[in-house]
Amino acid sequence: MPKHPEKVNDPVIALAALYQGEKTDASYVFNTAMVMMGVAVAYLIGAIPFVGNLSHGPFAWLFLVLLPFPLWLIIAFHSLMTINAMSHGISVRIIEDALFEASELQVDRDLVGSAAGDKIMDITQAKAAHIITTVVVYGGVALLVIGFTCYALLSANGLVHTEGIWIAVAIATYFLLFVMVALSWIEGFRIIGKGRAKIPKHVKSSEANAG
């Protein structure tokens, strides 16, 4: 009995469906991470004028101490979402490699799919100009958050007398939040690095396909 020709393409169809799901998830997570960064910048710009307005009243120091806290929650969540998106990107890359081999395209693999974008967004592959731009963007936001936190705490410290112990507690709390976010990025990049190291290296280039 002859075999059904559609059965031959079943693995490719399954990979394509899996790829679509992973690509959708990765895009959603990445877009959420970018929205969170936008929210953080908007909050920062809107909160700076409130430092002067909140410097009045018996509990003005407390409001100033709490003012940076939402920012730290946002950037902490942003770190989780960004690392999550990068993890999905590894999955997408593996599936794309399999689909690329099945397609038998006579082009360089680095020109197709997520591999093309990785040459710009992945700091391990990007050119110096793109690496510097990435560092400026993320480093700039980090400096703004840290600078605003210091500004709010210094403003609060100038308003208190007997509540000085609470300022010290606030400083320790924000320092711990800084350490937590830093460790989140460090551990996340470590996980991403291990995942990328496990991506199969058997995908053929255009020259190998032509041969």
Summary keywords:
211 residues; mainly alpha; 7 helices
Quote the distance from N terminus to C terminus. 36 Å
- SSE-based structural type: mainly alpha
Q: Determine the mean pLDDT.
A: 80
Q: What is the global morphology?
A: elongated
Question: How much helix is in the residues?
Answer: over 70%
Low-confidence segments, given as residue ranges, are 205-211
* Helix and strand pattern: HHHHHHH
Rg over CA atoms, rounded to whole Å, is: 24 Å
- Characterize the largest beta sheet: strand count, sense, and whether it forms a barrel: none
Please tally the helical runs, counting DSSP H or I stretches of 4 or more residues: 7
When the domains are counted, the total is 1
Q: What is the strand content?
A: under 5%
Beta-strand segment tally: 0
Topology:
Layout: H1 10-53, H2 60-66, H3 69-103, H4 114-121, H5 128-157, H6 164-197, H7 206-210
